Amino acid sequence: MTTESSLDVNLEKRTDDDGALLTVDNLTVSFPTDDGVVNAVRGVSYVLKPGEALGIVGESGSGKSVSSMAVMGLLPKNAQINGSVRFRGDELLGNTEKEFQRIRGDKIAMIFQDPLTSLNPVYSIGFQIAEAVLAHNDVSKNEARDRAIELLQTVGIPFPEQRIANYPHEMSGGMRQRVVIAIAMANNPDVIIADEPTTALDVTVQAQVLEALEAAREATGAALVLITHDLGIIAGHAERICVMYAGKLVETGSVEDVFYRPRMPYTIGLLGSLPRMDRPTERLTPIKGSPPSMVNMKPGCPFTPRCPMAQPVCDEQEPELLPIGTTDHSSACHFRDEVAKADAMSLFGQSSDDAVLEAPEVTA
Amino acid sequence: MTALDSTPALSKGPTTRGEPMLSIRGLIKHFPVRSKGLVRRKVGDVHAVCDVSFDVYPHETVCIVGESGCGKTTTGRALLNLVPASDGVVMFHGKDLTKLSNKAMRPLRRDMQIVFQDPFASLDPRMTVNEIIAEPLRIHGLYGGSVAGKAKVRELLKQVGLNPEHGNRYSHEFSGGQRQRIGIARALALRPQVLVLDEPVSALDVSIQAGVINLLEDLQGELGLSYVFISHDLSVIRHIADRVVVMYLGKIVETAAVTELFQRPVHPYTQALMSAIPLPDPIKERERKRILLTGDVPSPVSPPTGCRFRTRCPKFANDLNNMQREWCVNVEPALEPKFDDHPAACHFAGARTDILELGEAKDEIHPPLAPWPTTRPSDEVASRPPACLPNDPPREVQRLSDAVVVDEEGQLVEANGDGA
Question: Which residues contact A338 (CB under 8 A, 6 or more apart)?
Answer without folding.
Answer: A309
